[in-house]
Automatic annotation (TrEMBL):
InterPro entries: FA_synthesis, Phospholipid_synth_PlsX-like. The lineage of its organism: Bacteria, Bacillati, Bacillota, Clostridia, Neomoorellales. It catalyses: a fatty acyl-[ACP] + phosphate = an acyl phosphate + holo-[ACP]. This is Phosphate acyltransferase. Pathway: Lipid metabolism; phospholipid metabolism. Belongs to the PlsX family.
């Protein structure tokens, strides 16, 4: 299985991207096609002594993080993310992995791969660590304005991904809202609730933000605006907590003495909330596997993202998504009953 890597995308490209790709190739996770400036990539590869099977597809154009995605893709038709996505379309690669501009990757996937089946809006599905293991959140940023039927389709896609790729039997699907009552929320969530309530999914109702980390819901559905804010708040909160713990330990002699005993547990906890452990987030709803990585991804994150891509291919994710029914029309607003 060949995986195309946008080697020029990301805050630490091409160095960390190349190291992660080489690690995946060495462990025989997948065959690797690095897409980017051949001269720069060969310079990075030389001290790493990569497997002979690793391939380079040369291109000098890159979509920068601050560029407007649609405009950049029109002007840079040989940008690394476009070339890498094209390899998937042509069948030379089974999936594409990138830590570059999320907007450019989404645009390239839609332009080159196209939408999957009856799905109207692709969604980014990301892993959320909880007290009961990894759970799935979508959309994490692909769609900031959604209608009820879009949230319904996110639920369908998330349910399929959780079952096939994450191995969760009969995933519990919840709608992120400001209250658990059926009549809470705005028109978007009220309509989506009605659609989900009448669906064949294992819909458990609304879920509040404070309940996500309990882990009782396997698939959390929301629009991309809310999902992206939630995701970044969680990342910042985890970093802040570890910084505060470290500060308190340094400020107390007794705490420093006890730190040696709890350090292994803290390391294990940090590993559970570290995004590099989960690699990347699939863009669900396109006719191919496109894995979106954090812009700050290091080599470990890239290697794990390649693992995610391989599992998506092995579980027939694209074919499964293509068979989903989609949603027709908006759900009716659920009316509050007087108490």
């Amino acid at each position: 299985m060949q995986i195309a890597i946008d080697a020029m995308g990301g805050d630490h490209a091409p160095g960390e991207i190349v190291r992660g790709a080489v690690a995946a190739a060495r462990e025989k996770i997948a065959g690797i096609i690095l897409v980017g400036d051949k001269r720069r990539l060969e310079a990075e590869l030389k001290p790493l002594h990569p497997p002979a099977s690793l391939e380079i597809v040369h291109t000098e154009q890159v979509v920068e993080m601050d560029e407007q995605p649609a405009l950049a893709l029109r002007r840079k038709r040989e940008a690394s993310i476009i070339v890498a996505t094209r390899l998937v379309k042509e069948g030379r690669a089974a999936a594409v992995v990138s830590a570059g501009s999320t907007g450019a990757q989404m645009a390239a996937a839609l332009l080159i791969l196209g939408r999957s089946g009856k799905i109207q809006r692709p969604a980014i599905a990301t892993i959320i660590p909880t007290l009961k293991g990894p759970k799935l959140l979508l959309d994490a940023g692909a769609n900031v304005d959604c209608r009820p039927e879009h949230l319904y389709e996110f639920a369908l896609m998330g349910n399929l991904y959780a079952a096939r790729v994450m191995g969760i039997r009969e995933p519990r699907v919840g709608l992120l809202n400001i209250g658990t009552e059926a009549c809470k929320g705005n028109e978007q969530t009220l309509g989506a609730y009605n659609l989900l309530k009448g669906s064949p999914l294992n819909f458990t109702g609304n879920i509040e933000g404070r309940d996500i980390l309990a882990g009782d819901t396997d698939v959390i559905v929301c629009d991309g605006f809310v999902g992206n804010v939630l995701l970044k708040f969680g990342e910042g909160m985890a970093q802040a907590l570890f910084t505060m713990i470290g500060r308190e330990i340094k400020n107390s002699f007794r705490a420093r003495l006890g730190a040696a005993l709890v350090l292994p547990a803290l390391r294990g906890l940090k590993k559970q909330v570290d995004y590099t452990e989960y690699g990347g987030a699939p863009l669900l709803g396109v006719q191919g596997i496109s894995i979106i990585c954090h812009g700050s991804s290091n080599a470990r994150a890239i290697k794990n993202a390649i693992k995610v891509a391989v599992r998506c291919v092995e579980q027939g994710l694209v074919a499964g998504l293509g068979q989903l029914p989609g949603a027709n029309g908006e759900g009716e607003v659920v009316k509050c009953q007087p108490s």
